[in-house]
Specification:
Strand content: under 5%
Largest sheet: none
Distance between the termini: 101 Å
Low-confidence stretches: none
Structural class: mainly alpha
Number of helices: 4
Shape: elongated
Length: 116
């Protein structure tokens, strides 16, 4: 009975391939597949921008207006699929600040309410 040996080829037997345990954490992070771009995150930012801008027309426009502008800018910069929603949030954020400026010019205070 003759013993035969099989020669295996491939990346598992190649000596140039390092084992995962031999890699430093930096090398392991560099070798890891890239994380998806986070399309859901940017879509959520676009929707949050729209909601903040819409709510800012009614209450807390001094905070919600700039928040809507920043979220819309980030969503557009990162390439959201909901560009229309982000642009609408951007427009509403600017409108929040315009309403605030008009109300400050009318009565000279930064605070206002729905009752006037």
């Amino acid at each position: 009975m003759a013993l035969t040996t099989q020669h295996r080829t491939g990346p598992a037997t190649d000596r140039s391939v390092e084992r995962a345990a031999d890699r430093t954490p930096r090398q392991a992070a560099d070798a890891a597949p890239p994380r998806p771009t986070g399309r859901r995150d940017t879509d959520g930012m676009a929707v949050a921008s729209f909601v903040c801008g819409l709510l800012g027309l009614l209450v807390l426009n001094i905070f919600l207006g700039p928040t809507a502008i920043v979220l819309a800018g980030l969503a557009l910069h990162r390439g959201t699929a909901r560009k229309g929603r982000a642009l609408l949030g951007l427009g509403l954020g600017v409108a929040d600040l315009a309403v605030l400026a008009a109300l400050v010019a009318m009565d000279g205070t930064v605070s206002w309410g729905l009752a006037g």
